[in-house]
Amino acid sequence: DSPVTLKILQNWVPRVSHYFDKEHYTYAGHQIVIQESIEHFGAVVWPGALALSQYLESNQEQFNLKDKKVLEIGAGTGLVSIVACILGAYVTATDLPEVLENLSYNISRNTQNMNLHKPEVRKLVWGEGLNEDFPVSTYHYDFMLATDVVYHHTALDSLLATMVYFCKPGTVLLWANKFRFTTDYEFLEKLCNVFNTTILAEFPESNVKLLKA
After folding, report:
1. What order do you get walking across the sheet with 30-36 strand by strand?
2. CA distance 98 to 136
3. What is the pLDDT of residue 177?
4. What PANTHER family does UniProt report for this protein, alphabetically (predicted)?
C-alpha cells in the first residue's frame, strides 16, 4: 500500500508565558496543555509528535491501544504518551534524566483527573543498562512509539540497538520523524535492514514520514 498524504492539523492555540511556552492541543476529545522549555531539545513539541498523535487519534481501529502496553522512547514533552494514555493504553514514557521533570509534570497534569491507566515515567538512555532496567523476562510492549528521535546526533547506533532490544515478536514500532539530513535517510535504511518496515503516511508540508516496523 502506498502511504497516505496528510497535513498536520492546526488544532492548537499557542499561548505564551514569560518563562515557558504552554501549548494547548485537542486530541481524542480532550484538551491537553503542554509546558515547553527552550533549555533542552526534548522539552519542545516537534512535528513528528503532532503527526503521530493525529494518526493515533484517527486510526484507532487499525491501532487499538486500549489496554495495550505502550513504550515511548524520547518522549520529550509527553504529548504522544498522553494521547496514548487517553486512548486507553498502559503507557511507559521514557527520556533522558534532564527531561524527566518536565515530562512528569505534563503527563501528571493531563492525566491525573481521568479514569485512565496511570502512566509511568522512567529514565532511559538509549543503549545503556537496558537489560538491568528493563529485563526481557519482565517487560514486553505491544507498541513502541518514537517521534523525531532521529536528527544530527551521535546516538543513532544506540537508538537502533534500543529499538531492536524492545521490539520482540508481536511488537509494533511506530516512528514519526521530520526528515532533514542525509543521516535521517541513512538511519531509515538501517531500520529497513533490521525490521519489516512500511511507510504509513507522509506529511509533505512538514517533511514528516510516519513508519510502521
Report:
1. 12-16, 21-27, 30-36
2. 26
3. 97
4. HEPATOCELLULAR CARCINOMA-ASSOCIATED ANTIGEN (PTHR14614), PROTEIN-LYSINE METHYLTRANSFERASE METTL21C (PTHR14614:SF13)
CATH number at residue 89: 3.40.50.150
Picking from 204, 211, 149, the residue whose alpha carbon sits closest to that of residue 175 is 211
How far is 127 from 158, CA to CA, in rounded Å? 5
**Cβ within 8 Å of residue 46, ≥6 positions away:** 76, 147, 148, 178
Q: Which residue has the higher pLDDT, 132 or 8?
A: 132
Q: What cell does 56 get? A: 493515533
Task: List residues bridging with 94 in a β-sheet.
Answer: 122
Query: 76 with 53: CB under 8 angstroms?
Result: no
The H or E element that residue 146 is part of is strand 143-147
Q: By residue range, what is the domain housing residue 206?
A: 4-212
C-alpha cell at 49: 509528535
Number of structural domains in the chain: 1
- pLDDT digit string, tens, across residues 24-60: 898 988 999 998 876 666 677 889 999 999 999 999 9
Main-chain dihedrals φ then ψ at residue 4, nearest 5 degrees: -75, 150
Using only C-alpha atoms, what is the Rg of the chain?
16
| Interior angle at CA 194, CA 188 and CA 195, nearest 5 | 80
At residue 18, does pLDDT exceed 60? no
